[in-house]
Design the sequence.
């Protein structure tokens, strides 16, 4: 069910779901989806458990770089194709934080890009 990311209780586990759609008549290769998360959130990286623990392989991901505060996902998108990416998160540290914008862009084509608005989030005790 949807959660309000503007106000989360400390210890809340939730998922970030990002859908990328290519409405154009041409396909794009070498896209990168950049998801940077607030300092109060923690990425729950389940890749070390087993390969089937993550949805990224089934979603057609070429490579995924998981860092402490961000996930960079590299993929291709055919014309009119839609891909959905799910990341498991936890609201770990109490406080007020900036919620950075999510960005998707073609690495070698500056005309193909999309970005959400940045926001704020509060993790309460």
Sequence:
């Amino acid at each position: 069910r949807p959660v309000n990311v503007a106000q989360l209780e400390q210890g809340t586990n939730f998922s970030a779901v990002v859908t990328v759609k290519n409405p154009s008549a041409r396909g794009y290769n070498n896209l990168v989806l950049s998801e940077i998360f607030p300092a109060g959130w923690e990425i729950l990286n389940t890749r070390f458990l087993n390969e089937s623990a993550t949805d990224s392989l089934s979603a057609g991901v070429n490579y995924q770089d998981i860092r402490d505060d961000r996930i960079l996902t590299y993929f291709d998108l055919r014309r009119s194709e839609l891909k959905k990416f799910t990341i498991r998160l936890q609201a770990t540290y109490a406080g007020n934080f900036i919620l950075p914008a999510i960005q998707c862009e073609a690495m070698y084509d500056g005309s193909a890009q999309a970005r959400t608005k940045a926001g704020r989030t509060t993790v309460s005790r």
The chain has no helices and eleven strands. The two ends are 22 Å apart (CA to CA). The longest strand covers residues 82-91.
